[in-house]
Design brief:
By secondary structure, the protein is mostly helical. It folds into two domains: about 400 residues, no CATH class; about 110 residues, Alpha Horseshoe (Serine Threonine Protein Phosphatase 5, Tetratricopeptide repeat). About 65% of the residues lie in helices and about 0% in strands. The chain has a two-stranded antiparallel sheet. α14 packs antiparallel against α15.
Length: about 550
């Protein structure tokens, strides 16, 4: 359904959909640039450290082949394969070295491009007004903060940009051989940036279905050849990538979740009804983040979301309500022949399927994971807002964009300093075991050992069987010279670790130091008769 009525632009001038077609994309990109410019003074946060600073492939040019033959985490358990993103980090390091602002700049520009792509796809599918509303909502939505402010969120942003631009190019007709190759190039960007990119053939099929439903002409002979070329390229590429990962690189799509870190992915320990119902509650949490993103966090793992579910959990019922609402909305769209709305609902489901955790992925829930599905959710919201009367529509848009931008900016401020951000995150998510570890490590690194001991102790109360907490506590006790406590903590870590070998070195070191400490103490308190000396001059005979 295309809306062609005039709209009042920012300058107060009425324009038609055909007037200034570039305006929604440009205004959305500018809004994103202005809002996220604060991230340029940011640093390396959370996974940035492991993916960029600790991965030798980034800083050593001679290791570039390993980028294309090894997994994303350089030894991760979940076999992620995102060579284009890793290569982009490596190229940047070769160009400018360890300059965090330059990495953030690329994320900033990619996010602006994604916002422009949301606006342009919305404009082409439903009109100028809807494109502008969708683009501005996408630029201001707080749930996108993590994907942009954390450098490793580039995978989500680049994948989304590739998917949306490919869809924009595919919607435009006629499809020539050159356009088909351009679409394929953007598909490659998406596929090699993140696993969600492999869903793009389904999205293009849904887009072609929409075109036919909207009365679009069937492609002629030359266009059919171009579409067949695109189809063949995508089939061979995705099939070849699957074969490469499964048979050559040994990066299996199926892997044993028992080796997952259960604090980050509690579903590794979920069984029975818990395993079936927790993903429903996750859907409820994602909807909550999209509708009311007041509290944001980098971690939703164990003690926030566990491996059991209570029937009184409000997110469980919100998840069931979301499923019922989606079904009802899809039926209503079909009954009213509102094919654009149904397309957005289908696209939401397609892009969400890979993060739904019915097939276990590496993390239970992450805000940056919803970056791509949120584009179609916000297009639907834009369509709803566009149907309102002009005064109500303008008011709703101003209120939503203002509230979103305010929350986004207030959250982004904390990302520019590691210690401040982790402390703020713990205040927002006091039950996160992972954030307790991050705060504790920062205190340990800065020599604030009492603070480190206190925060790690609170984490141990939340997850008493998590070996990494005990290992870090042992390291703190080593720094204070409390070798008995260090040995006890290392033994607790050894007993609970999935890989006890990771603790052996520290345990041996602390045990050896404890033995030396005891021998030294015994030597200082040993009687004079055993040493051959009088412990005090007055004790000597005449």
């Amino acid at each position: 359904m295309r809306v062609c009525v005039p709209i009042v632009n920012i300058a107060g001038v009425e324009v038609n959909e055909s007037d200034r077609p570039w305006a929604p994309a440009v205004l959305s990109a500018l809004a994103a640039l202005a809002l996220y410019a604060i991230t340029l003074s940011g640093t390396y946060i959370y996974d940035d450290v492991q993916i960029i600073l600790l991965d030798p492939r980034i800083s050593h040019a001679n290791l570039w082949r390993q980028i294309w033959t090894m997994d994303y985490f350089h030894g991760g358990l979940d076999h992620l394969y995102r060579p284009l993103i890793t290569q982009s980090y490596a190229v940047q390091w070769w160009l400018h070295g360890n300059r965090a602002w330059a990495f953030h700049l690329v994320n900033l520009l990619l996010n602006a491009g994604a916002c422009a792509a949301v606006a342009e796809l919305g404009r082409r599918l439903a009109g100028w007004r809807i494109g502008l509303i969708a683009g501005l909502l996408f630029a201001a939505h707080p749930v996108h903060s993590e994907a942009v402010a954390e450098i490793v969120g580039r995978a989500d942003v680049a994948c989304t940009l590739g998917v949306l631009v490919a869809m924009i190019l595919f919607w435009h007709r006629p499809i020539t051989t050159g356009r088909a190759l351009a679409i394929y190039a953007m598909c490659l960007v998406a596929i090699l940036s993140k696993e969600q990119g492999m869903l793009i053939p389904l999205l293009l099929l849904a887009l072609e279905w929409l075109r036919r439903r909207e009365g679009g002409d069937a492609p002629d002979g030359r266009q059919r050849q171009a579409i067949l070329l695109l189809t063949a390229l995508l089939v061979w590429t995705i099939g070849g990538l699957i074969f490469l990962r499964e048979e050559v690189l040994d990066l299996k799509f199926e892997w044993d979740p028992v080796f997952l870190d259960w604090v980050i992915q509690p579903l590794a320990h979920a069984h029975g009804w818990n395993r079936a119902l927790i993903p429903v509650a996750l859907l409820g949490r994602y909807l909550g983040l999209l509708v009311a993103p007041a509290r944001l966090s980098i971690d939703y793992g164990y003690a926030v979301i566990g491996w059991t579910i209570d029937c009184r959990n409000p997110y469980l019922w919100l998840g069931f309500a979301t499923i019922a609402l989606w079904i009802a909305a899809a039926a209503l769209c079909a009954a009213r022949r509102w094919w654009t709305g149904l397309f957005c609902l289908m696209s939401m489901a397609i892009t969400y399927s890979m993060i739904a955790n019915y097939i276990v992925i590496g993390t239970i829930l992450g805000e940056r994971l919803i970056y791509l599905p949120s584009a179609f959710f916000l297009m639907l919201l834009a369509m709803a807002i566009a149907r309102l009367s002009p005064p109500v529509r303008v008011t709703a848009l101003v209120v939503l964009v203002s509230l979103g931008a305010l929350r986004t900016f207030s959250y982004l401020r904390h990302w520019n300093d590691r210690d401040t951000f982790y402390t703020y995150s713990l205040e927002q998510q006091p039950r996160s075991v992972q954030i307790h570890m991050l705060v504790g490590y920062c205190a340990y690194e800065e020599g604030r050992l009492d603070d480190a001991r206190a925060v790690l102790s609170r984490g141990e109360q939340l997850a008493p069987d998590y070996w990494q907490l005990w290992k870090m506590s042992a390291a703190v006790e080593e720094q204070t010279g409390n070798w008995a406590a260090a040995v006890a903590d290392y033994r607790r870590a050894f007993d609970t670790a999935q890989n006890p070998a990771a603790v052996v070195e520290g345990l041996n070191r602390a045990t050896q130091m404890l033995r030396k400490s005891r021998e030294k103490r015994e030597a200082q308190t040993r009687p004079a008769s055993t040493t051959g000396r009088s412990p005090h001059p007055a004790a000597a005979g005449p």
